[in-house]
Specification:
122 residues; mainly beta; Cyclophilin; 10-stranded antiparallel sheet; 7% helix
């Protein structure tokens, strides 16, 4: 399963893992949102509500696609966040890992807060 995301001028795909949250996101597509940024992280709200999964993590590698259950949002870190303690992204709280961004995660640096986000099945 893949999601195709258009975020401002950036276009990329997320290869979804086989998890309950990832399946719910695929089922909810297509949907629109607005970009928010937090350090080197892009996040945006979704119509999906999910519970924290057993393998949820707070520290991930750049390009890891995550779902922030506290905000019903997809979180896409590509570098340091304001609370990072090393070079890896540290999310605001534990998040469900939903997959991997395909290609260079630095493409997310092109996205600005307020940019329109369009999510569809790839």
């Amino acid at each position: 399963m893949k999601l195709k995301v258009t975020a401002g001028r950036a276009r990329f795909e997320i290869e979804l893992a086989d998890t309950p949250t990832a399946r719910a996101l695929a089922a909810a597509a297509p949907f629109d949102s607005r970009a928010q940024t937090w350090g080197e992280e892009l996040y945006f709200s979704t119509p999906v509500h999910a519970k924290l999964e057993a393998d949820a993590r707070q520290v991930v590698e750049p390009g890891t696609a995550c779902f922030w259950t506290e905000g019903d949002a997809i979180a896409l870190p590509y570098g340091r966040t304001p609370i990072s303690t090393d070079e890896r992204p540290k999310l605001a709280s534990r998040c469900n890992v939903i997959g991997t961004l395909q290609g260079d995660a630095r493409v997310l640096a092109q996205v600005r807060a307020g940019d329109r986000i369009a999510v569809e099945k790839a």
